[in-house]
């Protein structure tokens, strides 16, 4: 579905125009009748059976002694009659007139929701988004058939808005009001994405921190969501320990070629223990190709020299297949007899919070064994 600019419209006057003026235009454009030939005739369907049903329903609705609950049942059935005949504009006009004439009806949020759904069916997403927004911000929530109307509206708005500020509002409202009715992992991660787009880095990190406990969650469109969020949080936390230029750039390199040259030079020196000083400062990993996980938590006491048991370590002159603009692999061999081949993995740092580090290169990990 096409995502549209979010519409901020909570003005009572503008809402009044929306309820009265737009349906009036639809009546005139519908071509079935004019406003002067009688509204009741306009609301009756063509077939005799439908016409009789609607006549009966409108007759019942005209009783002054009806309770709000009784009117709700009648109005819902009238709307269902229009839905069955796919007559969205008549439903919009009928429900709009009712809400305009009965502003204190406690079921108005439901009627407005039906109007919004009609506009969606007519591919009028801009107007539908306006109604969804109005319902959440101006009308009390209702539960119909076990479903919250505000929750329905917010889920629809998420698919329609495209401004980060409005996405943030939607996700924050969903998290605060409906934590037990939504996928919290999805909401926290997407909130972090929206905060990023809006440049709210502290709030983005906070959202990612809330997402991290949902390890294993699948986020549509983001297969590496957990890895991404954890790297952002860990890098953010590490920044306070790297507050001088010397320390900030100690383990990152301006270009990939500079990083590769440093690694190869260190391997040539035969001092594999010195090589360890060039590893990434956060989320460095050492694992097999088939191992699933972010990083090895025990690497703090890891000594790379203990694996160099066969003398000189060799390396390929060129990067391995699969290397690209954001990450690269270098095949090395001559390590332990059990796993003589290691692939060094290099990646471009993604950390827009700090433009000085963002885009530099780091040695991010080791893959044991031959690559599949």
Summarize it.
With 372 residues, the chain is of the alpha+beta class.
Give a written overview of the molecule:
The chain has 15 helices and seven strands. With 372 residues, it is of the alpha+beta class. The protein has three domains: 12-164, Serine Threonine Protein Phosphatase 5, Tetratricopeptide repeat; 184-241, no CATH class; 246-368, Roll (Nuclear Transport Factor 2, Chain: A), CATH 3.10.450. The strands form two sheets. Strands 3-7-6-5-4 form a five-stranded mixed sheet, with helices on one face. A hairpin with a 7-residue loop joins strand 5 (327-333) and strand 6 (341-348). Helix 4 runs antiparallel to helix 5 and helix 5 (88-101) runs antiparallel to helix 6 (108-121). The longest helix is centred in the N-terminal third of the chain and has 19 residues, at 12-30. The two termini are 39 Å apart. Residues 4-10, 27-38 and 294-298 have low confidence and may be disordered.
CATH domain topology of the largest domain: Serine Threonine Protein Phosphatase 5, Tetratricopeptide repeat
Domain tally: 3
Helix content: 40-55%
DSSP E strands, number: 7
End-to-end CA span: 39 Å
Q: Identify the CATH class of the largest domain.
A: Mainly Alpha
Beta-strand share of residues: 5-15%
Largest sheet: 5 strands, mixed
Task: Chart the SSEs and their pairings.
Blueprint: H1 12-30, H2 39-42, H3 48-61, H4 68-84, H5 88-101, H6 108-121, H7 125-138, E1 143-144, E2 147-148, H8 149-160, H9 164-177, H10 184-197, H11 201-211, H12 225-238, H13 245-248, H14 256-269, H15 272-275, E3 285-288, E4 314-315, E5 327-333, E6 341-348, E7 361-368
Parallel strand pairs: 3-7
Antiparallel strand pairs: 1-2, 4-5, 5-6, 6-7
Helix pairs in contact: 1-5, 3-4, 4-5, 5-6, 6-7, 7-8, 8-9, 9-10, 10-11, 11-12
């Amino acid at each position: 579905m096409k995502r549209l600019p979010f519409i901020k419209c909570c003005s009572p006057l503008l809402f009044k125009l929306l309820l009265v003026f737009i349906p009036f235009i639809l009546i005139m454009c519908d071509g079935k009748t004019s406003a002067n030939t009688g509204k009741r005739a306009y609301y009756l369907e063509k077939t005799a059976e439908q016409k009789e049903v609607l006549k009966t329903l409108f007759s019942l609705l005209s009783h002054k002694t009806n309770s709000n609950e009784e009117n709700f049942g009648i109005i819902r059935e009238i709307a269902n009659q229009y839905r069955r005949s796919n007559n969205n504009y008549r439903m919009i006009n009928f429900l709009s007139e009712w809400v305009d004439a009965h502003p204190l009806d406690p079921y108005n949020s439901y009627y407005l929701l039906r109007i919004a759904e009609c506009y969606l069916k007519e591919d009028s997403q801009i107007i539908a988004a306006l109604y969804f927004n109005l319902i959440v911000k101006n009308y009390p929530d209702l539960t119909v058939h076990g479903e919250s109307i505000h929750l329905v509206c917010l889920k629809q708005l998420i698919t329609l808005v495209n401004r980060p500020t409005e996405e943030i509002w939607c996700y924050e409202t969903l998290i605060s009001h409906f934590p037990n009715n939504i996928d919290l992992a999805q909401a926290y991660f997407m909130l972090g994405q929206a905060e990023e787009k809006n440049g709210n880095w502290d709030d983005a990190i906070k959202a990612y921190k809330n997402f991290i406990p949902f390890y294993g969650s699948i986020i549509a469109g983001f297969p590496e969501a957990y890895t991404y969020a954890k790297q952002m949080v860990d890098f953010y936390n590490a920044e306070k320990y790297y507050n001088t230029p010397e320390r900030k750039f100690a383990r990152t390199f301006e270009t990939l070629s500079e990083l590769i040259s440093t690694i190869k030079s260190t391997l040539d020196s035969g001092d594999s223990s010195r090589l360890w000083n060039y590893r990434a400062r956060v989320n460095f990993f050492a694992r097999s190709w088939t191992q699933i996980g972010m990083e090895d938590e025990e690497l703090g006491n890891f000594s790379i020299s203990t694996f160099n048991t066969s003398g000189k370590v060799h390396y390929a002159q060129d990067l391995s297949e699969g290397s690209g603009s954001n990450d690269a692999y270098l095949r090395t061999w001559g390590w332990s007899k059990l796993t003589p081949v290691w692939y060094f993995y290099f990646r471009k740092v993604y950390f827009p919070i700090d433009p000085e580090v963002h885009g530099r290169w780091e040695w991010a990990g080791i893959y044991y064994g031959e690559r599949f």
